[in-house]
Amino acid sequence: MADARENAIREVVRGPIEDLGLDVESLAVSSSGSKRIVRIAVDADGGVGIDRIAKASRAVSATLDESDVMGQQPYTLEVTSRGLDAPLTAERHWRRAAGRLVAVTLADGASVTGRVAGSDPDGVDLTVGTEPRRLAYDEVQTAVVVPELKPRKES
């Protein structure tokens, strides 16, 4: 659970991040010696490349420096993408995973691996093998994208 400082920082940085078309996926503040470390993970439809990460980092840094939310204590800012191994926990994660292979553990303990065919506010459509399967979000205990290495085409 986020503390008051993390909530205040989240409120300050949300605007500049959203102005870049990004979502704040997570924000954490920790201490390292006399410094604080602010870690922010962002995501967007279509993914987040290094250029967008750099723009977000500059915008957030300027915003934090202009506000008093960090106080006088020095800090290090780390802005990253949410990462391939981050769990699919929100509808937008499923939408962004369209076409990807996912491993799902269901609430009843069963597991299924399939390709995301689509999603909406009520659930996700998977293709398991060649069969379609509909899952309501409340049926999903955990879900992650399965990394796939595509074979090189021989020339």
UniProtKB/TrEMBL annotation:
<dbReference type="InterPro" id="IPR035956">
    <property type="entry name" value="RimP_N_sf"/>
</dbReference>
<comment type="similarity">
    <text>Belongs to the RimP family.</text>
</comment>
<dbReference type="InterPro" id="IPR028989">
    <property type="entry name" value="RimP_N"/>
</dbReference>
<keyword id="KW-0690">Ribosome biogenesis</keyword>
<feature type="domain" description="Ribosome maturation factor RimP N-terminal">
    <location>
        <begin position="13"/>
        <end position="85"/>
    </location>
</feature>
<dbReference type="InterPro" id="IPR028998">
    <property type="entry name" value="RimP_C"/>
</dbReference>
<dbReference type="Pfam" id="PF17384">
    <property type="entry name" value="DUF150_C"/>
</dbReference>
<dbReference type="Pfam" id="PF02576">
    <property type="entry name" value="RimP_N"/>
</dbReference>
<protein>
    <recommendedName>
        <fullName>Ribosome maturation factor RimP</fullName>
    </recommendedName>
</protein>
<feature type="domain" description="Ribosome maturation factor RimP C-terminal">
    <location>
        <begin position="88"/>
        <end position="148"/>
    </location>
</feature>
<dbReference type="InterPro" id="IPR003728">
    <property type="entry name" value="Ribosome_maturation_RimP"/>
</dbReference>
<comment type="function">
    <text>Required for maturation of 30S ribosomal subunits.</text>
</comment>
<keyword id="KW-0963">Cytoplasm</keyword>
